[in-house]
Amino acid sequence: MFELEGDDASGREKCYTTIAQLPQFIDPKQPPARSPPFSAIEAHPFVHTVEVTLPRDVYSSIESSLESKLPKLRYARLHMALSSLVEGDFFNTYIKAGNFLMISEGWSGLDNVFTLRDGMLRLELGKEDYERTGLTGKAIRTGGKKHTKERYLVELNLRLPSMLHGKKGFQRIEWAFRKALDKPVTWLFFDLGSESTGMAEDDPSLKGNNPELISCEPVRTVHENITTPSFSDLKITEETSESDLKSLCGEVSEWLAMVSLGSRRVSVGDDIDPFLCRYDAPGIGDSSASDLVSLKWHGFIPPQWVTQLFITLFRETAPRVSKSRTWFTLSASALGRNATEGKDGCTIMVLPPVSCAAAQCRTPENQDAKVQDIRHSICWEFVGASIL
Known about the structure:
Elements: H1 8-11, E1 14-22, H2 38-42, E2 47-55, H3 56-69, E3 73-80, H4 88-95, E4 100-104, E5 113-117, E6 120-126, H5 127-133, E7 138-139, E8 151-157, H6 168-179, E9 185-191, E10 212-216, E11 219-228, H7 242-261, E12 288-301, H8 303-316, E13 328-334, E14 342-350, E15 354-355, E16 373-384
Antiparallel strand pairs: 1-16, 2-12, 2-13, 3-9, 3-10, 4-5, 4-9, 5-6, 6-8, 7-8, 11-12, 13-14, 14-16, 15-16
Helix pairs in contact: 3-8
InterPro entries: RNase_P_Rpp40
Protein name: Ribonuclease P 40kDa subunit-domain-containing protein
């Protein structure tokens, strides 16, 4: 065998796996944001790709419901300087009273990058630009890398009562934006207002920045004759050992990744020489050949929309709606904005429902005769070194 050198980047990569029991009912207006897997979705505010995978027959039965119940995605690309954020109608309409997301161009760890969420403006700056602004910030960890220039993070809460024109502290920020950080940059903008669907076409506060409206439509891919494990036979109990649980979740995650990549190794008719590849699908129950469908959205996607997508899939595949006991997965790839230990995204798999008796439920609420089925989710949250 060849001697492969160690990879420092892969050594810093982590995967946090969480197994949770999902509630019987999820309110779309008030989802449990602090409970898994919703907490993993909320932990990634800036997402660039969302992918859903589920059996083809299930997708055919819920296709019309997804199109009618899921809000359309639309965002804008703007060209504006930092000084424009704290001036005129934009400051009053969005910063002080609005609800939106903004992210600038650039790579963390290399360029000056800015993000704006819930009125909190985060500036990642090089040492020279940081000293020129005169603002107060903190040093960013370099992860122990050699020959790396110092970088600093400045956080400004623009919704504080003191953030008003004429105030001494606010004048200092205005001066820094006009004199030190005066170059216009490209932003991605998403309005989280319930009626704007991402971006209002007749918004006067953005007309001066020449907004480019971008619609995000899903791309459908059909994967035929895929060796699919019987996820209905996937049993995770308190007696399952940690090593078995780790191995099982790793095999399922690997299988999902190969399906997403369109690998022939998961096809029923794959006849590759075992000397070149000895991969086998996870041995969960009796594997069978099935057709799968993947839906992929690519653009600037907020976590609120990802949560609504998850809830819609959860409700449409519920036992009382869907005749078959099915599963689905949802993956969200994030725009990394941390120089070290950047969160790359998460993958959530909702397993087929099982009867309460089979799951050995012991909680008082599960003893109710009306509760017939429960559903579990497996959430993989990835923290990697892709931007180092």
